[in-house]
Amino acid sequence: MNSPHNIYIHVPFCVSKCNYCAFFSRACKEPDWTEYEQRIIQEINYWEKKLGRISIPTIFFGGGTPSLMPTKVFDNIVSKINSAFNLNKDFEITLEANPGTIDEQKLNDFIIAGVNRLSIGVQSLDDEKLRFLGRRHDAKSALKILKLASHKNIKVSADFIYGLPEETVKDIKKICADINSLGLTHCSMYELTIEPNTLFGKMNLNMPSNEEMADMYDAIDKNLKLPRYEVSNYAVPGQECLHNLNVWDGQPYIGIGQGAAGRILIDNQWYEQIGGGERFEKLSSTARAEERIITGLRQVRGVFLDSDTEKIINMQYVQDNPDLLQKTSDNRLITTKQGMLFLDELILKLVR
Ligand code: SF4
Question: Can you give the pLDDT at residue 29?
Answer without folding.
Answer: 85
